[in-house]
Design brief:
Elements: H1 3-21, H2 26-33, H3 37-52, H4 54-64, H5 72-87, H6 92-103, H7 112-124, H8 126-135, H9 137-141, H10 145-154, H11 159-166, E1 173-176, H12 183-192, E2 197-199, E3 204-207, E4 224-226, H13 229-238, E5 245-248, H14 255-263, E6 267-272, H15 275-288, E7 293-296, E8 311-317, H16 331-335, H17 340-357, E9 359-369, H18 378-387, E10 391-394, E11 403-405, E12 414-421
Parallel strand pairs: 5-6, 5-8, 6-7, 8-9
Antiparallel strand pairs: 1-3, 1-4, 2-3, 9-12, 10-12, 11-12
Helix pairs in contact: 1-2, 1-3, 1-5, 1-6, 3-5, 4-5, 5-6, 5-7, 6-7, 10-11, 13-14, 14-15
């Protein structure tokens, strides 16, 4: 990247990161900047990387500056520059120079000297700072203390691998529309266009490196969609069949809705409480050439959407901590609080109890979350079964009562439990 664009990218990333520090979601902060092209890509790369390593950078600043900076954008600039020093050490001179230039675009340029001094001090004291990082679990693992404690409690033998996976770049995985092709043939088609990939199963394809969707053959025509392999398992587990009435209760942005419709001809209703997010469901279905009844509605408020006709299948993809997908949303680690989990658990409980009422006897409901925490997953389902005597667990393929996927090179973290209503 040329020198001038790097300074501009650092300044842009600083504004985005400052919004996240202020409590705004990263996706919303990026959209708020209205960037495009190479500049958007550069700002996004810096913002995502900085937030993945926020614990690291925050500790470094505490060692390098005697008093906390009140100017949040300048603090964010230093965090972004420290991330780049760590990830592009061979280019340290350029990083310092361009961070100082970026400081000229923030706070009237009053902090140029401070930015220069802090970054040069970081380079001089690198050995000392590495010792400080190693001594701090938050800086070492890049998660808040409460999060690390939850992982250690729930995964005593796996928590380190899970934490490390959550700090990596996520894979780009595709779902081939089974009405229009299969994974093996699509991998061959990608190879003919110079895109390396491999099949994960009969419809899932994982790319060696992410590419723009414009490079994906047939994307605009609905032959393929972008969806993590773990998320693809929801439609498979629900076991839909032609003619079934199916409810996707928390459907936006519509990936699972589209996948269900690809698998079978259904009478499918997709709900989401957000009008803006519901439009994304419509857009996804339109691109795929598929149809469903899409409603703006809170699934818990039956009077606003339910016509009293029971469903054969219900997908309850509930709001959750999203702790299994933090490599795609690194801001989540720092915006979530331990107290938030209780709120998610209460909401999930309410959703499950309400949706059970719309399920036909003999029908099945799939409980799904992208969480790793047992309060939202295994304990939530166990509590539900204890409350509902007509609920029966349907074993997974391996015979277990549920399925907890932890993040790795091939997929994100997801949880599934399948429940059948006794007749």
């Amino acid at each position: 990247m040329a020198s001038a664009p790097l300074a501009i990218a650092l300044a842009g990333a600083s504004r985005v990161i400052a919004e996240v520090i202020g409590g705004r979601a990263l996706d919303a902060a990026l959209a708020n900047r209205q960037l495009s092209g190479e500049l958007r890509a550069a700002v996004q790369d810096l913002a995502y990387g900085t937030l993945r390593q926020f614990g690291h950078g925050d500790l470094l600043l505490s060692q390098l500056i005697a008093k906390p900076l009140r100017d949040v954008e300048v603090r964010a600039l230093l965090l972004a520059a420290l991330y780049r020093l760590d990830s592009r050490g061979e280019d340290s001179h350029t990083t310092v120079d361009q961070a100082v230039s970026a400081a000229g675009q923030l706070a009237g340029g009053r902090f140029r000297s401070l930015v220069n001094a802090v970054l040069r001090s970081a380079l001089r004291r690198s050995d000392e700072l590495r010792v400080a990082i190693a001594a701090s679990p938050v800086a070492r693992w890049q998660y808040p203390s409460w999060w690390l404690q939850a992982l250690q409690r729930d995964y005593p033998n796996e928590w380190q691998a899970i934490a490390e996976a959550g700090n990596t770049h996520p894979p780009m995985t595709l779902r081939v529309n089974r009405r229009r092709g299969d994974a093996v043939a699509y991998v061959a088609e990608l190879a003919s266009q110079g895109v390396a990939a491999r099949a994960l199963d009969d419809t899932a394809v994982i790319l060696a490196k992410p590419v723009s969707v414009d490079r994906l053959p047939g994307f605009a025509e609905g032959r393929v969609s972008v969806q993590d392999w773990g998320a693809q398992q929801a439609a498979c587990l629900l076991d839909v069949r032609p003619g079934m009435r199916v409810l996707d209760a928390c459907a936006a942005p519509g990936g699972k809705t589209g996948h269900l419709c690809e698998r079978s001809d259904l009478e499918l209703t997709a709900l989401d409480a957000s009008a803006e997010r519901t439009r994304r469901i419509d857009a996804n279905l339109s691109r795929l050439g598929l149809t469903a009844t899409v409603r703006v509605a809170d699934c818990r408020k039956l009077q606003s959407w339910w016509d009293k006709r029971l469903f054969d299948r219900v997908l309850a993809d509930v709001p959750c901590s999203a702790s299994g997908v933090v490599r795609r949303h690194p801001d989540i680690k720092w915006l979530r609080r331990a107290a938030d989990i209780a709120g998610f658990v209460a909401s999930q409980r309410e959703i499950l109890d309400v949706l059970w009422r719309v399920l036909a006897p003999g029908g099945r409901m799939l409980y799904a979350s992208c969480s790793l925490f047992t309060e939202e997953n295994g304990r939530q389902v166990a509590s539900f079964v204890a409350r509902h005597g007509d609920a029966r667990r349907v074993p997974m393929a391996d015979g277990n009562e549920d399925w907890q996927l932890t993040p790795n090179a091939d997929h994100d973290g997801f949880y599934y439990a399948l429940l059948e209503k006794r007749t």
